[in-house]
Design a protein that fits this description.
Elements: H1 7-16, E1 21-25, H2 33-43, E2 48-53, H3 58-66, E3 71-74, H4 79-94, E4 101-104, E5 107-110, E6 115-118, E7 121-123, H5 127-138, E8 144-145, H6 146-154, H7 163-176, E9 183-186, E10 190-193
Parallel strand pairs: 1-2, 2-3
Antiparallel strand pairs: 4-5, 5-6, 6-7, 8-10, 9-10
């Protein structure tokens, strides 16, 4: 594990050698954590990121998740909780099932390469966005409740709000750029893939 005291040092190191996962404090000197997160997503969208922060209000959580974080841990926290969250995120981002190609309409997912294409266009998804899309597309027509998707996306974070799922769905829909979107809202329940 390598630590950096400021945001710019972290970005420089990540740019040259991307890690499997970044634990990122939002309140960093110089380049703040959300700016670092933006750079990580631009440089290496496959890198998992967990935000650490004292800002625990829902708007702050949603802002961090909207910016591309895979999980959000508020202070104070125990070292044991951090270890469990890291393991959960790495399990989601690295523990894929055997390599397969999944296709639905113009969307093609290669789980071995962890790539997503819409037609000829390559889509850059964060690990959580990829997991959400792969979960839905693997079972077309099945409705997943928000709680089920929270279990998949947040692992051990049962304190997360239902709107967390809505944020990820909105980001995936936007990145896919399909109209109408194949991710259908089942009002009062959750989401399903229909194409």
């Amino acid at each position: 594990m390598t630590t950096y005291a400021d945001g710019q040092s972290a970005v420089n190191a990540i740019a040259s050698r991307p890690p499997d996962l970044v634990l990122l404090d939002i309140l960093l000197p110089g380049l703040d954590g959300l700016s670092v997160l933006g750079e990580v997503r631009r440089l290496h969208p496959q890198v998992a990121v967990i935000l650490l922060t004292a800002l625990s209000q829902e708007p702050e959580r949603l802002k961090g998740l909207s910016a591309g974080a895979d999980d959000y841990i508020t202070k104070p926290f125990s070292p044991a909780e951090v270890v469990l969250r890291v393991k959960a995120v790495l399990r989601r981002t690295q523990g894929e099932s055997p390599p397969t190609i999944m296709e639905s309409g113009p969307v093609r997912i290669d789980s071995a390469a962890r790539t997503v294409q819409v037609g000829e266009r390559q889509i850059a998804l964060t690990p959580s966005e990829y997991t959400l899309l792969a979960t839905l597309i693997r079972r077309p027509g099945r409705t997943f409740t928000r709680d089920q998707l929270l279990d998949i996306l947040q692992g051990l974070d049962r304190s997360a709000m239902d709107r967390t799922v809505d944020v990820f769905v909105a980001k995936v829909r936007k990145k896919l750029g399909l109209n109408p979107s194949p991710i259908h809202t089942v009002w009062g329940v959750g989401y399903r893939w229909m194409h």
